[in-house]
Amino acid sequence: MLSISQFSRVSHISPKTLRYYDEIDLLKPQEVNQENGYRYYSSEQLITALKIQKLKQYEFRLAEIRLALTDELYLHDRLLEKAGEIQQKIVDYHDLQAALEGDLATLAAGGNFLFNQETEKITYHESVSWQIISIRKTINVKDFSQLLQEVVALVELKQATTVYAPITIYHSMEYTPDHYDVEVAIPILEKNLATRQLIAQGCVSYHFKGNYQKLPAAYAQLGKWVDEHQYEVVDPFFEVYLTDPSVTPADENEVVIYLPVKER
Fold first, then answer.
1. How many whole angstroms from its chain centre is CA 20?
2. Which of 24, 237, 256, 257 could join 206 via S-S bond, C-beta 3.0 to 4.6 A?
3. pTM above 0.70?
4. 96 within some domain
5. Which parts of the sequence belong to the HTH merR-type domain (predicted)?
6. Last residue of a domain, one of 31, 46, 70
7. Residue 21 falls within a domain, yes or no?
């Protein structure tokens, strides 16, 4: 048997953390001395401790680890999911590195790395309108591609004719990525097959081209233009995706941002 101090040294888990694992029934000591409360662990429990440490490295939450310790099928499936999540992070960090290098180049040339978009790309429209097939849900933003696939499948099911690029309409008043109210739409030709008509009377658009990491700066530039021209945003804004980010180089993505506005 190993005391909590000995077990801590071998497993590289602090005594404080071991006590917490005991409290939440993640890793309970083999024995507890009833007289002094000292915890003792078996050498076999080192395997469990090392497994916990390994799963924490893979960014498992403690609740997930508890399940993984007792359910091999869950462990296998969750490891597959984690592999996908880590791969996506690699892609995201690659894009972030590309954006950083671009900003460094802009600064070296004497430019403003934040507001380096062209204001000539901003256009005012009296009206924009499309017949759309859409699905509106409250989702985690990580599940956006799944929602887009659902809309594509619905368009195919209805045998509708696509006339423009996919659109996302943001209905949430605040950015809450884990429960974001969004509507994904595809413009179609046939009015009788549409979910509804998307229409904005008075709209400012911004044709953005570049790494998605710079989209917030594009919104800032567009908001600055709206303020300077004495407008205010009145309805949910939406984005039209002219390129597919899954196959387009990060710096070549194109998005048209639309802000419905009215004069102040």
1. 31
2. 257
3. no
4. no
5. 1-71
6. 70
7. yes
